[in-house]
Amino acid sequence: MIRIAVLGVGRIGRMHAENIAAHPRATLAGVYDVIDAAAADVSARLSVPAFGSVEEVLASPEVDAILIATSTPTHADLIEKAVAAGKPMLCEKPIDLSLARVDACARRIAGTAVPIMLGFVRRFDPSHRAVRDAVRAGRIGDLHQVVITSRDPGLAPEGYLKVSGGIFRDMTIHDFDMARFVLGEEVVAVQATGSRLVDPAMMERLGDYDTVSITLTTASGKQAVITNSRQSVYGYDQRVEALGTLGMAQSENIRAHHMVLSTQAQTGEGAPLQNFFIDRYREAFAAEIGAFVDAVETGTAPEVGFEDGRQALVLAEAALRSAQVGRTVQVSEAARQSEPA
Amino acid sequence: MIRIAVLGVGRIGRMHAENIAAHPRATLAGVYDVIDAAAADVSARLSVPAFGSVEEVLASPEVDAILIATSTPTHADLIEKAVAAGKPMLCEKPIDLSLARVDACARRIAGTAVPIMLGFVRRFDPSHRAVRDAVRAGRIGDLHQVVITSRDPGLAPEGYLKVSGGIFRDMTIHDFDMARFVLGEEVVAVQATGSRLVDPAMMERLGDYDTVSITLTTASGKQAVITNSRQSVYGYDQRVEALGTLGMAQSENIRAHHMVLSTQAQTGEGAPLQNFFIDRYREAFAAEIGAFVDAVETGTAPEVGFEDGRQALVLAEAALRSAQVGRTVQVSEAARQSEPA
Amino acid sequence: MIRIAVLGVGRIGRMHAENIAAHPRATLAGVYDVIDAAAADVSARLSVPAFGSVEEVLASPEVDAILIATSTPTHADLIEKAVAAGKPMLCEKPIDLSLARVDACARRIAGTAVPIMLGFVRRFDPSHRAVRDAVRAGRIGDLHQVVITSRDPGLAPEGYLKVSGGIFRDMTIHDFDMARFVLGEEVVAVQATGSRLVDPAMMERLGDYDTVSITLTTASGKQAVITNSRQSVYGYDQRVEALGTLGMAQSENIRAHHMVLSTQAQTGEGAPLQNFFIDRYREAFAAEIGAFVDAVETGTAPEVGFEDGRQALVLAEAALRSAQVGRTVQVSEAARQSEPA
Amino acid sequence: MIRIAVLGVGRIGRMHAENIAAHPRATLAGVYDVIDAAAADVSARLSVPAFGSVEEVLASPEVDAILIATSTPTHADLIEKAVAAGKPMLCEKPIDLSLARVDACARRIAGTAVPIMLGFVRRFDPSHRAVRDAVRAGRIGDLHQVVITSRDPGLAPEGYLKVSGGIFRDMTIHDFDMARFVLGEEVVAVQATGSRLVDPAMMERLGDYDTVSITLTTASGKQAVITNSRQSVYGYDQRVEALGTLGMAQSENIRAHHMVLSTQAQTGEGAPLQNFFIDRYREAFAAEIGAFVDAVETGTAPEVGFEDGRQALVLAEAALRSAQVGRTVQVSEAARQSEPA
């Protein structure tokens, strides 16, 4: 049994804590939160210890591994500390909003053998993964185009968006990772277009976009097209499509149930899409914990790690610049951005 | 927290034990099985006590309620004992294969206030329930026809079938309950046709059918049509359809994931159907435990009870007689069958 | 070019006339209708002669074949006359509402080599036919069950229903033929249940049913289940399903177009079903003409002939009796009904 | 009856000729082809005159309108001649591969009242049009994103591609028009990425791409994303999607029939997609003729005209430049390209 402590028990941390508790080869070693009451509440509900500090968690011989679900600005620090303490970790994305900070973190943990897994949960969705597997197994032949549709049910509050790092770093980052997951080779060029359509006034204030389209190209010419919107009122729209020389694989949306209603007014109306990311990716979140437990048990590198987190951020930087300056941005150029003088 | 003990920890009992353990308002109070090793194994895996006898379970002040997942011939006895002990119970279907035994049981427990829930799990499937809810909410107007397709992935072993009570009592019984669930009124007449097509030689030996079609009619003329097969090689086929004056509601099959593959040879191939009943009705089994916990907590009658179990068996008897004699059988006639002289 | 004259240019006759005119290997030789104005109108619109009498049509050397789309009571007479005149014919179903009249007709035309095709148009629907073809090609292995859903968008006027011969002879007759088409072997037993739900008062007056369920069984035990309703407000519901040892083939409903609308209120609403039989079976009606032209050109027996029309009526008789007396009716028994004493 | 002559009776011209002949308010006035034998063949098959020259067609009082289905380099000349002759015309796309030639043509026919319709047939597809209509009717609220998937079943021969003007002018041009049709406002900026993946060697020789992704943006920030491939082995993939503030409308692929096959190996395999453009857009081609007949009868401007043909070419030029130089190209800039110095 792998004993995992959860740092940060907001909405996502709580869900992870429950998934850890339910996993047959893991136990919840305890929780920590900067807000004592939050930790106490989860501690009581799940009958596990509440730790008093990060240091206490990292020092505890009762903790085999940690899950980092704290606020974004703390991630890089916690990764460095967990590496120092030799505790394998599953860290929620992103590593940091600043590529320079990510690169500094990379230098500090260079060469570590401590397993670091990044929380790109969509890789563990059975349908998206089946697309990737179909590609890897050659069922669609040589891959040519990937098309990712990713739209949030509704705009987050301005307070959240203000510190989110912008749509590319906050939302598209999942799709950049999905594109890399399906493409199986690195992206070299990025074209992006950003618009302010859902809430133009708020986007103006934030200097952000709410509707974006991005084309990624690999060295061999494979293309990945991503369309994002901060608002899809019909539900959380999450689709992945891959075209190859032998066919196409598509991961379709998930519905709350499979009842279909046909009346004079509406013929063949499906059930609503799963609307909330925790519902939509319920199986994926559970499978993610399973993959982390596997990595910790075997001491092997998790299938999605620090460098994946860094690459997704590099693509976000490149996309942002492309949208701002109106030209194709080379990834090498975006990656250079953070290099020390 | 409702403390529930599980009697019988074969395949289904184990699954129930895990669902109880995972339920936020229930705990697994322990397990019992006539085979000590089976109880010991589950006891060890789930860290709960193994009881030495049914009597011990029923006498324990640490047990608030029981789940009966033992072999069919023990169900009626256990129901009577649990009623005597005042322990609410969730009993797997059927109550018994003999309507006379069911009626004897009914007389012995007559007037009890102890909650008895019957394990007609399909009522808790989100899609089937959405059909029933659409009917009750008037979304399809006045109900006219119900069509239930229910086909098992493959024939069970002869040893199992020999003691199953035959296809109507073993397999169609779920569909009889589903028909009553959706119809919302009692069936008065039954027409059935049985064939031996999947394994004619085995069916001949057993005096049973493997392919049946049944039409049920209520007093107001509503019809429910059930088609069953012991073998659908494309997966576990479970569909429910309701036609009314304002429309139609359909509960469709569930797939393992939502990836669709299109190639030159096969265009738009969906993922396989969920094939195993524990996978197919995973959400339903969990929801069933939830409904039982609700009933025990509130002391109210479970939404599916002893009389539902009895009525489904009455319909099975009627269908068997109809298939054998080639005429419509009145339910009143089938029900009389078990009355004492 | 096969020159075909159309007898009867009501709604269906007109459509046939247009399909003949559009067929590359057929021409419309002219039209006849008992109502002169109707014939004159179609004659003018399609620039073809209007014949003055049936006799004139049958005597004309400019007419190679005829299409009979007159009222039902005239069909058997016209078949006999066309046989006498040596003109191949495509006759709309049914041959007659009376099995005795059909049998008399059969005796009179016994041994004729003149091609007689019956207008069971649904056999020519590409999707239904693909089900039949999948069955014949062994793609689903040995056939076990056929399930036919057939529901009319709305109740026809009482005047029409009064002379229709009742739901089994008028509506289910298409499904009896479809069942025979897919089953590929003769039905030996019929069970039927009839209800009055759509318009109980009118059905009471007519002594008819508006909602019926029928189970057909072949000598080898294959089952075909038909559900009919005179009213499906969500559109013309026409589905055929076949289950076999290797799989299932399903013919699904046709929609007016393939646009799907998803909003907050309704997720994934498809376009309306094709609602009117002439729209729904447009391709089938055109293919039917093609099959008739082929038969006339080659002088071979049409793939659906007089005996198919007779068998469907025998099944209708059997179903009616079964619904009335509440027992399984043997087809041999129904067929005997019309035999001369 | 509008009497229409067809110029050019290759594959597309013949189909148009048949559609004209079948239209209730049009007749085929005759055909012309630079290859006498081709004209003679169609003339004989459809029993219409074969004209000896374009001049003869344009001078004929028996010809009310013309359909131009000759080779691309002749289109602009024929448009100018038909305008001079006062004959309304339906001209296959493109007007010309050179924007300068198109602009010269525009100047020569400036101010004409002769109806000129451009053959952007996809506008008449019932499903695509239903998307556009849903957008115009406000059913999805304010439009934000359009996503067009357009993939050809297989690569055309090199000889054809050599004179096609390249993928943007030959293939994407239909999607540029579809984007404008759905967007309902003009595109101001174009980003494109081109790859050589289907046949890199041939594409290298041609200086062309076979796999492209394009993002179009309007002045208000609406986005249209187009993905094209010269090869989709699973069939002709033609989908249009529109996202707005109130929902999403999607036009899905069309299948040859609606039979679905489920076996142990493949669950829920749909029928093949319509593979050939003449099959896929059969209804659209017929509706296009209808729209042209309407325009000629009423003397009103066709719903898709010369300027639509010109705008689509401007977008093709912009996309080509964007793909070549790796930056966003402003449409004003592309349009200027053809202006006289």
TrEMBL record, chains A, B, C, D:
Oxidoreductase: present as a keyword of the record?
yes
Q: Which GO terms describe its molecular function?
A: inositol 2-dehydrogenase (NAD+) activity
InterPro entries per UniProt: Gfo/Idh/MocA-like_OxRdtase_N, GFO_IDH_MocA-like_dom, Myo_inos_IolG, NAD(P)-bd_dom_sf
The leader peptide range reads none
Task: Mention any Pfam family matching this sequence.
Answer: GFO_IDH_MocA
Q: Which UniProt keywords apply?
A: Oxidoreductase
Instruction: Tell me which residues make up the Gfo/Idh/MocA-like oxidoreductase N-terminal domain.
Output: 2-119
Q: What is its EC number?
A: 1.1.1.18
Top-rank lineage group of the source organism? Bacteria
Q: Does the keyword Transcription apply?
A: no
Where in this chain does the record put each GFO/IDH/MocA-like oxidoreductase domain? Answer: 128-249
The entry's family comment says:
Belongs to the Gfo/Idh/MocA family.
Give the protein name, as stated in the record.
Inositol 2-dehydrogenase
Q: Which organism is it from?
A: Rubellimicrobium aerolatum
> Could you tell me the gene encoding this protein?
iolG
